[in-house]
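Fig. S4 source data, part A: sequence.
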Amino acid sequence: MENLYNFDNFINRHFKISIAFFTLGLFFGILYSINLLGFSIDSQTLNPINMRSIHISLMLYGFIPLMLSYLPFLLINKEVGVDKEGLRFLNLYTIFWYIFLVFMVLSLLLGKSRGLAFYDFAYELNFLLAFAGIFYIIALYKFIRLYKILPLWIKVCLRVVVIAPVALLILMNPIIGQVESTVSGPHGDNTLGMSLALIPIYYLIIKLLNIGEFKASWNIFWIIPTIFYFGSVLHRIIIGPLSYNQEWFLQYLSLLYIPLLYRWFKDSNISAHAKKALLISILAFLFVDIEGNIIFIPQIRWIFHRNDLIVAHAHVAMGIAVFFMVIAMFINSIKELQKDIYLNAYLFALLGIFIVLSISGFTQAGIINIPSHTMWIFRTVFGCFALVFIFAFIKIKKSYSKMQLYNITGILSDGLGGIFLILLASFIYPIVGFTFSGVYEYIVFTFVCMTGIIHYMALKNPSSQIILTNLTVIIRVFASSMFFALYASEKLGMEALAICLFDLAFVFAYLIFFYQKPSKKEILCKD
């Protein structure tokens, strides 16, 4: 339990767990890109709509926002330390967020989407996020007890997080919410609001990373946009929709963030690694800000509306600006982030995606004549190159015990095999002559994955390796016996017998070679 109450261990562990969801998002983005090239299979789950939804949803609701939500706690830890009880609630909040992500991915994989650009998962899943938010609020209250006098940023943060769960359920609601009514954008006030949301995050990140106390200056450049943004919200509520010129004016107010971020960055005193990551984030944010204002010009807006240039714009906004926000936050805590080769590879890949999609956008607008298909090939290549970043976190041991190799085999066969079946069974089953209903099979595949996860837990926890491996054997005995019964009663075909024999092979291998086998020392001992 001591590990749970160590803040550095907590941050390290959950950063590396959540990066798995980021990897999954990249993976589905690459699959979607390959589909656009015309390489597709007739899979119930691996269709382009599902893959695009999962890719976007994981980028927007996975690793990046979860890690950004740790920012207040990182800053509190720097200023006054850690509350162990609060850390427990923060851990629960994180686990509930993981549960939400699992529900989101699987429901999107089976085709349950809302058909929206940025809020594609089922509305009901917002209740999981709101539930997680309750534990976030509790954790924050536990942490701020360490302050004798609450700083202003803590007071603001408290008000935001308290209303966030309720606001989430209202805004996302398909009947009374604002999601469906704002998808035809871009709206100038919405763009200003989204940009405004990142400004306090930049302030807190600089405050976190700064050596010594950071005092913000030139605050008038965020005060003016804030006043006008909330004025626009009241205008929409009380008076009615804004005119195009009013939206245009609000859009251009976001340009005030350019001198503001320049001043803050110049006044900061940050270590070299963190300052480089923060600079990349700020430059990407300012580029998106300027490009967004150019695209908003009426003569340009409708030429590029909803084509690949907008997709390229989104990759810079989320994939570079916000992503490197997170990198800057954690670069002093996560040693893997200090390896330039991996961050440079990722940045190169995202810039490559931006360039080729921008060229494709100009082609789609009829300005140049370079086939989009050619650009999509390069996008796929750069997408694959982005995965190089993940190798910073992969450590492969050179030697394993026989028991560990047994568990690794279980991970590969059941863990990865179960995922493979979820993705491809609807395509493979008919080819090999098996019936596939597309209902109960997914439940079976999920249980297969869970066996693989137990093997993984056995591999990662040497002290519990025997009991966890025994558990996989018990599961396999009962699963194989049930599949044999279904085969013998002719309720299932040869696929049931194949699964039965597969699991029995694992059971027999374990019982013969590992179960209660004495060590060499015990064999040599004499009474």
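Fig. S4 source data, part B ends here. The longest helix spans residues 402-432.
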